[in-house]
Amino acid sequence: MPILFYSVRESPYGCFSNFSPHPFDLDGKRWPTSEHYFQAQKFAGTPSEEDVWQARGPMKAAELGRERSRPLRRDWEAVKDDVMRRAVRRKFEAHDDIRAILLSTGDEEIIEDAPRDYYWGCGADGSGKNMLGKILMEVRAELCHDLNPPLATSEAEGLMTPEEYDRLCRSDCFVCRIVAGRPLVPNPHVVYEDDRVIAFLNQFPTQEGYTLVCPKRHVERYEADLSSEEWLYLQGVVQRVSRAVAEATGAMRMYIASLGSPERNAHLHIHVCPCPSGTPFTEQQFAAMELEGGKYLNLSDERMRDIAARIQERTMRSYK
Ligand SMILES: [Zn+2]
C-alpha cells in the first residue's frame, strides 16, 4: 500500500512534509524547516535569502519564496530538485526519530498527496510527478545503505567452521560465561544489562544488529523455569531492545525466537533479529535468521562496537 502524506499534523508521516519543525544545519546556517532552506535557495547569495531564512514559520517562508517581486536565480529550474534533495537528506540525517519513521516504510511507495501541486505532489487526480515523494524514497535508500553498507567479500563469511562452532557451544554455557565475565568468544558486545537480564550482540549473526536477550540466571525452559512475572519482565526487555535495534538499523521488521536445545546453547536466550529494509521476500522470515551452511557475518570488531553503541544508546534512552 503506498504511503500518502500531506499535512504536517498527520501521524506518523506528517514529518515527511517540508513544513515539519525539524531544523538542520546546511551551508553554514541552521534552517528551521526544509521549506525555509528550499525557498531561500531561490535567492541564494542575495538579501532575499536572508529574509526567507528569518521567516517566521514555513508558511511565511513559502510566501516569501513565491513573491515574484524578488528576482529568482537564473538556474533555478535546473537546480531545484537537487536543492530539495539536499534539504530532505540533511533533515533526516539530523533526526533519529524521523529517520526511523522514514526507514520503517521499507520499500513502499511514498506519495505527497498534495491536490494543488502537480510537480512536488501527485495533484488532485494522481497524475502529478510526485517529486517530493520520489526524493524521500531516494533519501530512504541512501540512508539505508549508509546503515548497511555492503560487506566486503572477505568479511562476508565467518571464520569459524560449523564443527568448531558446535564444539565451542557444547563446551560450556555461553550465557553464564558472559555474565561471569569469562566469555567463550572474546569481546561480547553488551547492549543492555540490569540485575536480572542481559542482552548482547549475537556473535554469529546473519544480520547486523542481531541481538540475544537472556535471563542472567541459568534457566533453560521459559514455560517451566520462569515465573510468569519473570517471563513478562524478560519480554519487556525484549521489546525495549527490539525497538532500539529497529531504530539503530532501520529494520523493516523485528523477528523474535526462542531456540536452543538441551545439548547446545541450553541457557534460555531470545533471538532479536532485524530484517533489513529492502530485503526481498524470499530472504525474509526464517531465511533472514538462518545460518545457511554455518555462514555468518564476520563483522570487524570496530563495526560490532559501532552497532552495539547505537543500540545501547537507544536502550538507555527509553529508560527516561
Ligand atoms: Zn547458563
Structure write-up:
About 2% of the residues have low confidence. It is elongated and about 80 Å long. It is built from 12 helices and 9 strands. The protein folds into 2 domains: 145 residues, YbiA-like (Tetracycline Repressor, domain 2, Orthogonal Bundle); 162 residues, HIT family, subunit A (2-Layer Sandwich). Strand 5 and strand 6 form a beta hairpin. By secondary structure, it is α+β, with helices and mostly antiparallel strands. Strands 5-6-7-9-8 form a 5-stranded antiparallel sheet. The structure holds zinc ion.
Strand tally: 9
Overall residue-averaged pLDDT value: 90
Q: DSSP strand (E) fraction?
A: 5-15%
What would CATH call the class of the largest domain? Alpha Beta
Shape verdict = elongated
Work out the radius of gyration: 24 Å
Described by strand count, sense and barrel closure, the largest sheet is:
5 strands, antiparallel
Strand line-up of the largest beta sheet: 5-6-7-9-8
Lay out the secondary structure:
Elements: E1 3-5, E2 24-26, E3 29-31, H1 34-40, H2 47-53, H3 58-66, H4 76-94, H5 96-103, E4 110-112, H6 131-147, H7 162-171, H8 174-179, E5 190-193, E6 197-201, E7 211-215, H9 222-225, H10 228-249, E8 253-258, E9 270-275, H11 286-289, H12 301-317
Parallel strand pairs: 1-4
Antiparallel strand pairs: 2-3, 5-6, 6-7, 7-9, 8-9
Helix pairs in contact: 1-2, 1-3, 1-4, 2-3, 4-6, 10-12
The structure holds zinc ion.
Zinc ion (ZN) binds next to α8.
